[in-house]
Amino acid sequence: MPQSATSRQLAGVLLLVACAATILAGVMDGSGRLLGGAAAWGAAILLWPQTTRRSRWQTLILAGLGFAGVGYGVSRGVSPDVARIISGNMGLIALLIGITFLQLVTSADSDDDAGRPGPRAFRTTSLGVHLFGAVINMSAVFIVGDRMRRYGPLRRLHGILLTRSFSTAGLWSPFFAAMGAALSFAPGAQILVLIAIGTSLTLVALGTTWFTMARQADHAFHGYPLKYANLRVPAIMAVLVIIAHLLLPDVPILIIVTATAPLIALAYLLPRGRTGRRTLIDHIRFNLPGINNEVWLFISAGVLAAGIASVLAATGDWQPFSRVTALEAWLVAGGITAIAAIGIHPIITVAAAATLLDGLPTNENLLAMAFLFGWTMGMCINPLSGLNLSLQARYGIQGIDMMRANARYVMGMLLVFGALLWLAEHLLGGY
Predict the structure, then answer these.
(1) Whose CA is closest to 139, among 97, 184, 193?
(2) How many whole angstroms separate alpha carbon 249 and alpha carbon 256?
(3) Which residues contact 265 (CB under 8 A, 6 or more apart)?
Protein backbone atom coordinates (compact mmCIF):
# COMPACT_ATOMS: atom_id res chain seq x y z
CA MET A 1 0.00 0.00 0.00
CA PRO A 2 1.43 3.46 -0.90
CA GLN A 3 2.73 5.47 2.02
CA SER A 4 0.25 8.30 1.39
CA ALA A 5 -2.67 5.86 1.58
CA THR A 6 -1.26 4.33 4.77
CA SER A 7 -0.85 7.79 6.34
CA ARG A 8 -4.39 8.73 5.36
CA GLN A 9 -5.87 5.63 6.94
CA LEU A 10 -3.78 6.06 10.09
CA ALA A 11 -5.03 9.64 10.25
CA GLY A 12 -8.61 8.36 10.10
CA VAL A 13 -7.95 6.10 13.10
CA LEU A 14 -6.32 8.99 14.99
CA LEU A 15 -9.33 11.20 14.32
CA LEU A 16 -11.60 8.50 15.74
CA VAL A 17 -9.35 8.31 18.82
CA ALA A 18 -9.49 12.11 19.13
CA CYS A 19 -13.28 12.05 19.06
CA ALA A 20 -13.57 9.17 21.55
CA ALA A 21 -11.03 10.70 23.95
CA THR A 22 -12.86 14.04 23.90
CA ILE A 23 -16.18 12.35 24.62
CA LEU A 24 -14.68 10.43 27.54
CA ALA A 25 -13.07 13.61 28.83
CA GLY A 26 -16.44 15.33 28.81
CA VAL A 27 -18.17 12.46 30.59
CA MET A 28 -15.40 11.83 33.12
CA ASP A 29 -12.78 14.13 34.63
CA GLY A 30 -11.49 15.85 31.50
CA SER A 31 -8.02 14.28 31.63
CA GLY A 32 -8.48 12.69 28.20
CA ARG A 33 -8.84 16.03 26.47
CA LEU A 34 -5.09 16.34 25.98
CA LEU A 35 -5.00 12.86 24.43
CA GLY A 36 -7.75 13.92 22.06
CA GLY A 37 -5.86 17.07 21.12
CA ALA A 38 -2.62 15.17 20.57
CA ALA A 39 -4.41 12.64 18.34
CA ALA A 40 -6.01 15.42 16.31
CA TRP A 41 -2.63 17.14 15.87
CA GLY A 42 -1.11 13.83 14.79
CA ALA A 43 -3.84 13.22 12.22
CA ALA A 44 -3.58 16.78 10.92
CA ILE A 45 0.19 16.49 10.47
CA LEU A 46 -0.22 13.23 8.54
CA LEU A 47 -2.81 14.88 6.31
CA TRP A 48 -0.88 18.13 5.75
CA PRO A 49 0.28 17.12 2.20
CA GLN A 50 -3.39 16.65 1.22
CA THR A 51 -4.55 19.98 2.67
CA THR A 52 -5.58 22.60 0.12
CA ARG A 53 -3.28 25.52 -0.53
CA ARG A 54 -5.80 28.02 0.82
CA SER A 55 -6.21 26.09 4.06
CA ARG A 56 -2.43 25.87 4.45
CA TRP A 57 -2.03 29.62 4.21
CA GLN A 58 -4.91 30.24 6.61
CA THR A 59 -3.47 27.72 9.04
CA LEU A 60 -0.01 29.27 8.92
CA ILE A 61 -1.37 32.80 9.42
CA LEU A 62 -3.71 31.90 12.29
CA ALA A 63 -1.20 29.68 14.08
CA GLY A 64 1.59 32.21 13.50
CA LEU A 65 -0.44 35.00 15.09
CA GLY A 66 -1.38 32.69 17.95
CA PHE A 67 2.20 31.72 18.73
CA ALA A 68 3.20 35.39 18.48
CA GLY A 69 0.56 36.21 21.10
CA VAL A 70 1.85 33.42 23.34
CA GLY A 71 5.37 34.79 22.91
CA TYR A 72 4.21 38.27 23.89
CA GLY A 73 2.53 36.88 26.98
CA VAL A 74 5.69 35.00 27.95
CA SER A 75 7.68 38.23 27.60
CA ARG A 76 5.29 39.82 30.12
CA GLY A 77 5.51 36.94 32.58
CA VAL A 78 2.45 34.94 31.46
CA SER A 79 3.06 31.20 31.33
CA PRO A 80 2.03 29.60 28.01
CA ASP A 81 -1.16 27.57 28.20
CA VAL A 82 0.16 24.41 26.53
CA ALA A 83 -3.06 22.47 27.16
CA ARG A 84 -5.08 25.13 25.37
CA ILE A 85 -2.69 25.13 22.41
CA ILE A 86 -2.98 21.36 22.05
CA SER A 87 -6.68 20.91 22.73
CA GLY A 88 -8.25 24.37 22.61
CA ASN A 89 -10.89 23.59 19.98
CA MET A 90 -11.22 19.86 20.59
CA GLY A 91 -14.91 20.10 21.45
CA LEU A 92 -15.69 21.46 18.00
CA ILE A 93 -13.23 19.16 16.21
CA ALA A 94 -14.78 16.15 17.94
CA LEU A 95 -18.23 17.35 16.89
CA LEU A 96 -17.09 17.60 13.27
CA ILE A 97 -15.72 14.07 13.47
CA GLY A 98 -18.83 12.70 15.16
CA ILE A 99 -21.38 14.17 12.78
CA THR A 100 -19.63 12.68 9.73
CA PHE A 101 -21.17 9.37 10.83
CA LEU A 102 -24.61 10.81 10.11
CA GLN A 103 -23.72 10.66 6.40
CA LEU A 104 -23.98 6.89 6.70
CA VAL A 105 -27.60 7.24 7.77
CA THR A 106 -28.88 10.33 5.95
CA SER A 107 -27.41 9.18 2.64
CA ALA A 108 -29.97 6.38 2.65
CA ASP A 109 -32.87 8.84 2.80
CA SER A 110 -34.80 9.45 -0.38
CA ASP A 111 -34.02 12.76 -1.99
CA ASP A 112 -36.41 12.55 -4.91
CA ASP A 113 -38.68 15.07 -3.21
CA ALA A 114 -36.86 18.26 -2.40
CA GLY A 115 -40.02 20.20 -1.87
CA ARG A 116 -41.12 23.19 -3.92
CA PRO A 117 -38.18 25.61 -4.31
CA GLY A 118 -38.49 29.31 -3.63
CA PRO A 119 -39.31 31.66 -0.71
CA ARG A 120 -41.37 29.09 1.18
CA ALA A 121 -38.48 26.63 1.02
CA PHE A 122 -36.24 29.32 2.48
CA ARG A 123 -38.57 29.97 5.41
CA THR A 124 -39.27 26.33 6.27
CA THR A 125 -35.59 25.42 5.99
CA SER A 126 -34.68 28.36 8.21
CA LEU A 127 -37.19 27.26 10.83
CA GLY A 128 -35.91 23.69 10.70
CA VAL A 129 -32.28 24.76 11.16
CA HIS A 130 -33.27 26.99 14.07
CA LEU A 131 -35.46 24.51 15.97
CA PHE A 132 -33.22 21.49 15.57
CA GLY A 133 -30.07 23.56 15.96
CA ALA A 134 -31.41 24.73 19.31
CA VAL A 135 -31.14 21.14 20.55
CA ILE A 136 -28.49 19.32 18.50
CA ASN A 137 -26.33 22.38 17.83
CA MET A 138 -24.10 22.54 14.75
CA SER A 139 -24.91 19.04 13.58
CA ALA A 140 -28.24 20.51 12.39
CA VAL A 141 -26.31 22.91 10.14
CA PHE A 142 -24.37 20.04 8.59
CA ILE A 143 -27.43 17.82 8.12
CA VAL A 144 -29.33 20.58 6.33
CA GLY A 145 -26.29 21.92 4.48
CA ASP A 146 -25.35 18.49 3.15
CA ARG A 147 -28.89 17.93 1.91
CA MET A 148 -29.05 21.31 0.14
CA ARG A 149 -25.65 20.67 -1.44
CA ARG A 150 -27.13 17.74 -3.34
CA TYR A 151 -28.77 20.24 -5.68
CA GLY A 152 -25.65 22.24 -6.39
CA PRO A 153 -22.98 24.33 -4.66
CA LEU A 154 -24.20 26.42 -1.75
CA ARG A 155 -24.41 30.13 -2.46
CA ARG A 156 -24.34 33.32 -0.40
CA LEU A 157 -28.08 33.01 0.29
CA HIS A 158 -27.59 29.52 1.72
CA GLY A 159 -24.85 30.86 3.96
CA ILE A 160 -27.09 33.67 5.23
CA LEU A 161 -29.87 31.19 5.98
CA LEU A 162 -27.57 28.82 7.87
CA THR A 163 -25.68 31.46 9.87
CA ARG A 164 -28.67 33.53 10.96
CA SER A 165 -31.11 30.68 11.55
CA PHE A 166 -28.66 28.66 13.60
CA SER A 167 -26.98 31.45 15.55
CA THR A 168 -30.23 32.96 16.83
CA ALA A 169 -30.95 29.75 18.73
CA GLY A 170 -28.11 30.85 21.00
CA LEU A 171 -30.30 33.71 22.24
CA TRP A 172 -32.57 31.38 24.18
CA SER A 173 -31.55 27.69 23.96
CA PRO A 174 -30.31 26.18 27.26
CA PHE A 175 -28.43 23.61 25.15
CA PHE A 176 -26.05 26.21 23.69
CA ALA A 177 -22.61 26.86 25.12
CA ALA A 178 -23.56 30.55 25.03
CA MET A 179 -26.21 30.03 27.72
CA GLY A 180 -23.76 28.10 29.87
CA ALA A 181 -21.21 30.87 29.56
CA ALA A 182 -23.78 33.59 30.30
CA LEU A 183 -24.97 31.86 33.46
CA SER A 184 -21.39 31.15 34.53
CA PHE A 185 -20.18 34.71 34.14
CA ALA A 186 -23.41 36.29 35.40
CA PRO A 187 -24.42 33.73 38.05
CA GLY A 188 -27.25 35.85 39.40
CA ALA A 189 -29.16 35.76 36.11
CA GLN A 190 -32.45 33.85 35.89
CA ILE A 191 -32.67 31.42 33.00
CA LEU A 192 -36.43 31.90 32.49
CA VAL A 193 -35.92 35.65 32.14
CA LEU A 194 -33.11 35.06 29.65
CA ILE A 195 -35.27 32.66 27.63
CA ALA A 196 -38.15 35.16 27.56
CA ILE A 197 -35.95 38.04 26.37
CA GLY A 198 -34.01 35.81 23.99
CA THR A 199 -37.18 34.40 22.42
CA SER A 200 -38.46 37.91 21.76
CA LEU A 201 -35.19 38.79 20.02
CA THR A 202 -35.32 35.55 18.05
CA LEU A 203 -38.76 36.33 16.65
CA VAL A 204 -37.51 39.70 15.42
CA ALA A 205 -34.32 38.21 13.99
CA LEU A 206 -36.02 35.37 12.10
CA GLY A 207 -38.85 37.60 10.93
CA THR A 208 -36.39 40.16 9.60
CA THR A 209 -34.42 37.51 7.75
CA TRP A 210 -37.51 35.92 6.23
CA PHE A 211 -38.89 39.30 5.11
CA THR A 212 -35.66 40.61 3.61
CA MET A 213 -34.01 37.47 2.24
CA ALA A 214 -36.71 34.89 1.37
CA ARG A 215 -37.73 36.84 -1.73
CA GLN A 216 -34.25 36.19 -3.15
CA ALA A 217 -34.89 32.43 -3.14
CA ASP A 218 -35.73 31.51 -6.74
CA HIS A 219 -36.60 28.29 -8.54
CA ALA A 220 -33.00 27.09 -8.07
CA PHE A 221 -33.20 27.31 -4.26
CA HIS A 222 -33.97 23.88 -2.85
CA GLY A 223 -34.32 23.83 0.89
CA TYR A 224 -34.84 21.12 3.48
CA PRO A 225 -38.60 20.50 3.75
CA LEU A 226 -40.10 20.00 7.19
CA LYS A 227 -41.25 16.46 6.45
CA TYR A 228 -40.84 13.33 8.52
CA ALA A 229 -38.67 11.55 5.94
CA ASN A 230 -36.19 14.43 5.93
CA LEU A 231 -36.26 15.27 9.62
CA ARG A 232 -36.26 11.72 10.97
CA VAL A 233 -32.57 11.68 11.86
CA PRO A 234 -32.53 15.18 13.43
CA ALA A 235 -35.71 14.31 15.35
CA ILE A 236 -34.18 11.10 16.71
CA MET A 237 -31.05 13.01 17.65
CA ALA A 238 -33.05 15.73 19.34
CA VAL A 239 -34.98 13.23 21.47
CA LEU A 240 -31.84 11.30 22.42
CA VAL A 241 -29.95 14.49 23.25
CA ILE A 242 -32.77 15.76 25.48
CA ILE A 243 -33.05 12.42 27.31
CA ALA A 244 -29.28 12.19 27.78
CA HIS A 245 -29.14 15.78 28.99
CA LEU A 246 -31.83 15.09 31.59
CA LEU A 247 -30.06 11.94 32.75
CA LEU A 248 -26.56 13.47 32.65
CA PRO A 249 -27.02 17.18 33.43
CA ASP A 250 -23.34 17.64 34.28
CA VAL A 251 -22.13 16.45 30.87
CA PRO A 252 -21.69 19.32 28.37
CA ILE A 253 -24.37 19.35 25.68
CA LEU A 254 -21.69 19.48 22.98
CA ILE A 255 -20.28 16.16 24.22
CA ILE A 256 -23.74 14.57 24.23
CA VAL A 257 -24.37 15.66 20.65
CA THR A 258 -20.93 14.45 19.57
CA ALA A 259 -21.52 11.01 21.07
CA THR A 260 -25.08 10.67 19.81
CA ALA A 261 -24.26 10.91 16.10
CA PRO A 262 -21.93 7.86 15.94
CA LEU A 263 -24.28 5.88 18.19
CA ILE A 264 -27.14 6.46 15.73
CA ALA A 265 -24.91 5.26 12.89
CA LEU A 266 -23.89 2.18 14.89
CA ALA A 267 -27.50 1.34 15.71
CA TYR A 268 -28.37 1.66 12.03
CA LEU A 269 -25.44 -0.27 10.53
CA LEU A 270 -24.45 -3.01 12.98
CA PRO A 271 -27.70 -4.99 12.55
CA ARG A 272 -26.77 -5.23 8.87
CA GLY A 273 -23.93 -7.61 9.72
CA ARG A 274 -20.74 -7.71 7.68
CA THR A 275 -21.97 -5.08 5.23
CA GLY A 276 -22.66 -2.63 8.04
CA ARG A 277 -19.30 -3.28 9.69
CA ARG A 278 -17.48 -2.81 6.39
CA THR A 279 -19.30 0.49 5.84
CA LEU A 280 -18.15 1.73 9.26
CA ILE A 281 -14.55 0.64 8.71
CA ASP A 282 -14.43 2.24 5.26
CA HIS A 283 -15.83 5.45 6.70
CA ILE A 284 -13.05 5.61 9.29
CA ARG A 285 -10.31 4.73 6.80
CA PHE A 286 -11.40 6.79 3.81
CA ASN A 287 -14.06 9.37 4.74
CA LEU A 288 -12.79 10.74 8.05
CA PRO A 289 -9.48 11.94 6.56
CA GLY A 290 -11.53 14.03 4.15
CA ILE A 291 -12.18 16.61 6.88
CA ASN A 292 -8.47 17.51 7.05
CA ASN A 293 -9.10 21.12 5.99
CA GLU A 294 -11.62 21.60 8.79
CA VAL A 295 -9.32 19.99 11.35
CA TRP A 296 -6.40 22.26 10.46
CA LEU A 297 -8.59 25.36 10.51
CA PHE A 298 -9.89 24.59 14.00
CA ILE A 299 -6.48 23.60 15.33
CA SER A 300 -4.96 26.86 14.13
CA ALA A 301 -7.94 28.84 15.43
CA GLY A 302 -7.35 27.22 18.82
CA VAL A 303 -3.72 28.31 18.74
CA LEU A 304 -4.86 31.83 17.87
CA ALA A 305 -7.29 31.82 20.80
CA ALA A 306 -4.48 30.73 23.13
CA GLY A 307 -2.34 33.60 21.87
CA ILE A 308 -5.10 36.15 22.37
CA ALA A 309 -5.73 34.83 25.88
CA SER A 310 -2.03 35.29 26.66
CA VAL A 311 -2.15 38.88 25.46
CA LEU A 312 -5.26 39.60 27.54
CA ALA A 313 -3.68 37.99 30.60
CA ALA A 314 -0.78 40.40 30.28
CA THR A 315 -3.06 43.46 30.69
CA GLY A 316 -3.56 45.18 34.03
CA ASP A 317 -6.67 45.74 36.19
CA TRP A 318 -9.07 48.33 34.79
CA GLN A 319 -12.85 48.80 34.97
CA PRO A 320 -14.63 50.76 32.24
CA PHE A 321 -17.85 51.47 34.18
CA SER A 322 -18.96 52.22 37.71
CA ARG A 323 -22.09 50.05 37.39
CA VAL A 324 -23.89 47.88 34.82
CA THR A 325 -27.37 48.94 33.75
CA ALA A 326 -29.13 48.64 30.39
CA LEU A 327 -26.82 51.17 28.74
CA GLU A 328 -23.63 49.50 29.94
CA ALA A 329 -24.97 46.04 29.03
CA TRP A 330 -25.74 47.33 25.53
CA LEU A 331 -22.22 48.71 25.20
CA VAL A 332 -20.80 45.38 26.36
CA ALA A 333 -22.88 43.53 23.75
CA GLY A 334 -21.78 45.96 21.04
CA GLY A 335 -18.16 45.61 22.09
CA ILE A 336 -18.25 41.81 22.03
CA THR A 337 -19.90 41.88 18.60
CA ALA A 338 -17.45 44.42 17.18
CA ILE A 339 -14.43 42.53 18.46
CA ALA A 340 -15.87 39.31 17.01
CA ALA A 341 -15.87 40.99 13.59
CA ILE A 342 -12.07 41.03 13.64
CA GLY A 343 -11.90 37.30 14.32
CA ILE A 344 -11.85 36.98 18.11
CA HIS A 345 -14.13 34.31 19.54
CA PRO A 346 -16.86 35.69 21.84
CA ILE A 347 -15.86 33.36 24.69
CA ILE A 348 -12.63 35.34 24.99
CA THR A 349 -14.31 38.73 25.13
CA VAL A 350 -17.13 37.44 27.35
CA ALA A 351 -14.59 36.12 29.84
CA ALA A 352 -12.56 39.32 29.61
CA ALA A 353 -15.65 41.52 30.08
CA ALA A 354 -16.80 39.48 33.09
CA THR A 355 -13.37 39.91 34.65
CA LEU A 356 -13.31 43.65 34.02
CA LEU A 357 -16.82 44.14 35.46
CA ASP A 358 -16.38 41.88 38.47
CA GLY A 359 -17.46 43.54 41.71
CA LEU A 360 -19.56 46.30 40.12
CA PRO A 361 -23.24 46.85 40.98
CA THR A 362 -24.83 44.86 38.16
CA ASN A 363 -28.20 43.88 36.78
CA GLU A 364 -27.08 40.34 36.03
CA ASN A 365 -30.06 39.47 33.84
CA LEU A 366 -29.15 42.31 31.49
CA LEU A 367 -25.45 41.48 31.60
CA ALA A 368 -26.16 37.82 30.83
CA MET A 369 -28.33 38.89 27.88
CA ALA A 370 -25.48 41.07 26.67
CA PHE A 371 -23.22 38.03 26.73
CA LEU A 372 -25.82 35.96 24.85
CA PHE A 373 -26.38 38.66 22.25
CA GLY A 374 -22.68 39.32 21.70
CA TRP A 375 -21.99 35.59 21.39
CA THR A 376 -24.90 35.04 18.98
CA MET A 377 -24.26 37.99 16.69
CA GLY A 378 -20.52 37.41 16.92
CA MET A 379 -21.08 33.86 15.70
CA CYS A 380 -22.45 35.00 12.34
CA ILE A 381 -20.25 38.08 11.85
CA ASN A 382 -16.95 36.57 12.97
CA PRO A 383 -15.12 35.18 9.89
CA LEU A 384 -13.18 32.83 12.21
CA SER A 385 -16.12 31.58 14.26
CA GLY A 386 -16.67 27.85 14.42
CA LEU A 387 -19.83 28.28 12.34
CA ASN A 388 -18.21 30.30 9.56
CA LEU A 389 -15.05 28.20 9.53
CA SER A 390 -17.22 25.10 9.12
CA LEU A 391 -19.19 26.66 6.26
CA GLN A 392 -15.95 27.69 4.60
CA ALA A 393 -14.20 24.36 4.95
CA ARG A 394 -17.24 22.19 4.21
CA TYR A 395 -19.16 24.20 1.61
CA GLY A 396 -16.72 26.78 0.28
CA ILE A 397 -18.69 29.73 1.70
CA GLN A 398 -16.06 32.27 2.72
CA GLY A 399 -16.22 33.63 6.26
CA ILE A 400 -15.39 37.16 5.09
CA ASP A 401 -18.38 37.01 2.71
CA MET A 402 -20.66 36.04 5.58
CA MET A 403 -19.28 38.89 7.68
CA ARG A 404 -20.20 41.37 4.96
CA ALA A 405 -23.57 39.76 4.25
CA ASN A 406 -24.59 39.84 7.92
CA ALA A 407 -23.13 43.24 8.90
CA ARG A 408 -26.29 45.34 8.37
CA TYR A 409 -28.45 42.63 9.94
CA VAL A 410 -26.26 42.59 13.06
CA MET A 411 -26.26 46.39 13.38
CA GLY A 412 -30.05 46.46 13.08
CA MET A 413 -30.40 43.75 15.71
CA LEU A 414 -28.09 45.70 18.01
CA LEU A 415 -30.53 48.63 17.91
CA VAL A 416 -33.46 46.30 18.62
CA PHE A 417 -31.51 44.77 21.48
CA GLY A 418 -30.87 48.20 23.00
CA ALA A 419 -34.59 48.98 23.02
CA LEU A 420 -35.40 45.57 24.52
CA LEU A 421 -32.77 46.04 27.24
CA TRP A 422 -34.27 49.43 28.16
CA LEU A 423 -37.75 47.86 28.35
CA ALA A 424 -36.48 44.89 30.39
CA GLU A 425 -34.71 47.19 32.84
CA HIS A 426 -37.91 49.10 33.51
CA LEU A 427 -39.95 45.91 33.91
CA LEU A 428 -37.39 44.00 35.98
CA GLY A 429 -36.07 46.87 38.05
CA GLY A 430 -32.47 47.64 38.96
CA TYR A 431 -29.77 45.38 40.29
Answers:
(1) 97
(2) 10
(3) 101, 102, 104, 105, 280
